[in-house]
Amino acid sequence: MQNIEQSCYWLATRPDQGEITVLQGKLDADIVVVGAGFTGLWTAYFLKQIDPSRDVVVVEQGVTGYGGSGRNAGIVSACVDHSHALAIVHFGKAEAARLAEIGQKNIDELAQFAFDCDFEKTGQLQIALTQKHLEDCRENNRVAEELGINSYRFLGRDEVQAELNSPLYLGASLVTGGGIINPIKLVGKIKAEAMKLGVRFFERSPVIEVKGGTVVTKGGSINARKIVLATDSYTHHLFPQLLWRFIPLYDYILVSEVLTGEQLRKIGWQNRQGIVDCRSFFNYYRLTSDNRILWGTSEANYYPPNRVDESCDHSEPHYRSLRESFVRHFPQISELNFSYQWGGPIASTTRLTPFFGTLEGGKVIYALGYTGHGIGTTRIAGKILAHMACSKETDLLSLSMVRKKPFPYPPEPLRSLSVNMVTNSLRQVDKGDDPGILLKMLDLLGIGFSS
Length: 451
Ligand SMILES: Cc1cc2nc3c(=O)[nH]c(=O)nc-3n(C[C@H](O)[C@H](O)[C@H](O)COP(=O)(O)OP(=O)(O)OC[C@H]3O[C@@H](n4cnc5c(N)ncnc54)[C@H](O)[C@@H]3O)c2cc1C
Fold this sequence. Notes:
alpha/beta
């Protein structure tokens, strides 16, 4: 199997990064950020915006964007939670409305910042594949309206098939506000802007220990006043105690060869929306700027006990089932070949939104757990972490998402057992069964297991 920097379309086609510096010897800094994904990059960028005099250093084990940030589907949603209805369940109606406003403002600012990262404000189609999904779409639109959000519109079968021609589609919600982006260009842009502000970067420098205000790598160490952990699904490698609050999972993606004009004509997709369907384990897909189809699945895999490493980067069974599901959706272009395939790690929480906190008497600050939904929210988290690191006030610190921790996950062996039970129940729901007692109970507690 190819390594991730060759097999992931975004990483393999990324613009030249320039020279990489490995950490060697002893250094001092005001603030060290561990992890150069979106969370770490935005944190470093906002730290310099808040206080240009601070010496900020970012340390990354691979290259910038090596984790989920360089491997994702690039579908940008303005919604901070997985849906506005879930935001109400998790945080109450008033805070759900506030999150919706924060989320939309955040995406508008992101779009301005990322104008040269292939950001297309296409909106999103949330596809109904069953009668029940049609009801879900109508309900989602109603909830959005109730929160004062007017970016949802219901599309019937003919309308959605005119947007994108799949025989499986029965209807959809068309949600304006978000879009699609090239995530690795966004990674590169935030890094470049942070460097202009004076942030120093060390890459291919895995941190092996964080203790007493010191970040230690194999070749060097940095003493810092504050340390920001922006390591998402890898966090337990440094702080295993945080595993109570998240579970690491792997999502898998295919990217096709470039579509011919004739193939594009057969499917439509003139408006190039990012797409998700309404199942628990949904497909997500989009066009790239050179007109390939990126085809992913949220049927994420858990590798016990909490494995996150290169051995999980590929999964033949997932690739096979992705190709099969693609042909079911688009039989008219079933001949399409897929040139890239890869997986990436996701940190999932029981409330599907990230959590924040401190360790080591406040020296270490962290945010993680975007549950496969982090392109927009990492920018908000970076702003929050930067304020926490500088002890500066912002309204964002009062959000329940920041103040409260999600319901914990059980440790092994119960963890594997519960993942298997919930996965099987969700598969049954996707086949049209009623949610069983387990899912109903979890629903009541506002707990989710999907990515
Ligand atoms: C396949 C896939 C598809 C997705 N699709 C979407 C999507 O369409 N839309 C969306 O909004 N979200 C999506 N996501 C989720 C999104 O990518 C993540 O939520 C987001 O990238 C998280 O950013 P992060 O910076 O917190 O974590 P990461 O990007 O994982 O960054 C953490 C970084 O920390 C580094 N690190 C870890 N440990 C150490 C250490 N010990 N020393 C040094 N460095 C370390 C890692 O190498 C990594 O670069 C997807 C994720 C995956 C995997």
